Amino acid sequence: MGDASRDALGRYRLWDGVSLRSGVFVSRRPLAVTTLNESAVDVVSELETTAFTSPTAIAAATGYDRSAVARILDGLHQRGFLEWAPARDAAHRPPVSVVVTVRNDRANLQVCLDALATLAYDEYEVVVVDDGSTDGTAALARSHSLADAGRLEYVSVGSATDPLGIGASRNHGVEATSYDVIAFTDADCRPRETWLAELVPVLAAHDLVGGRIRPAGETPADVYEGVNSSLDMGAYAARIRRDGQTPYLPTANLVGRREVFESVPFPDRNVAEDVDVCWRALEDGYDVVYTPMGVVEHAYRTSIRSFASRRADYGSSEALLARTYGHGDAVGLPIWLVLVALSAVAAAIGGTTLLAGGVIGAAVVGYSTLAVVRTARRLRTAVETGAVVRSLLRSTLSTVYALSREVTRYYAIPVALLAVVLVPTSVGTAVALALSVVVALPAAVEYAVHRPAVSPLRYGQYYLTDHLGYQLGVYRGAIGHRTLAHLSPVARFRLRV
Fold first, then answer.
1. Number of domains forming the structure of the chain
2. Most exposed of 55, 171, 197, 359 (fewest Cβ within 10 Å)?
3. pTM across the whole model
């Protein structure tokens, strides 16, 4: 269990675009307004948009109870007014054991060990766990400068024909370490010089911490991964929550207390072992957090074939996790969007149903317009009407984007097959056209927002390979684990007004 006496409340600061006006707290993106009482105003007034401040510091400055301050700040964070970051103590720099697992990846391991040798950290060791390599990995590890300096231990597990696997290899790595703080990375990763110096201080208050993972190169695959990598948890810190925006920490960049890894060992498998460790650690009461600091660069697979294979492996783990833990959070499906879809179907069918579709469409437009007017009137003392309209438009686009991406990732293949079956009819044509729009929309939005340094066609190629490869893995996992829990539309979508 995590130590409740440690200050694990984290730190807070104002998001850019957030302002306090006469007791009214306003956030521009996303647009939100709330009225604060006197004590909440006092608490918020201690925050800045640059430096993070802890509830403990604010309690000392205002005289309020620390728990009450923490509740106010957490509530405002959950509603999007405040940015959160984990607590950290720069003086907390205990010795660290770094575990690197490898199998037949000598060239990447060389670069990884070279990066580890330059870490700006006082005391650390490196444990290389070799799972039956036959490419000279052992000789490389034993002759590296880290070994010459007495900082590297080589551990051989498995064999060329009977490898132990990633999860079990990591557990052997834990057993071979000397220190009470253990960090994990992989042979195809290059930790930056400040990796441990930025992450280890977080363990003064928290139990597990993961840092950001960024591409190591500039190939088209790296550029795409820079936008859509499943290993990159993003630019903002977060508490790990199964149903949250940051649901787990990849072991390519994971640092924690020995106690956690001994209490919650890695499962004996090669996929989603890091997800399992994070979720079981949460169940056991450990505090698991993410920070965009402590960056590790990852050498992504560059060929389309290997890229698709990796995505399929990721997708296949969903069935296992759904069977073990149940499906996580669902994407919100607005009723108005359901009405629009029904209108489109009615238009495709034609006849008298087309009139019904038109009536439904008019009702949708009227409902949306009324919502804008009501929201503008309610907020007119704090926010101008134009800001309300722009916010609602952004919210609508975000909703359509999220739903389109979900359909593309999980249902594009069966819907495409349905369209092929129905293609001689107008309904089949309508389904095919609708699917084309649904698949293309998220890619177009991502390209416009992030402006990656590749052509739209190249980005689209990796985008389709990503989602269709992942989807094939999802269905492969469903068959292998005999469950559809992760594919049920009832579980993946929730109706909302």
1. 3
2. 359
3. 0.88
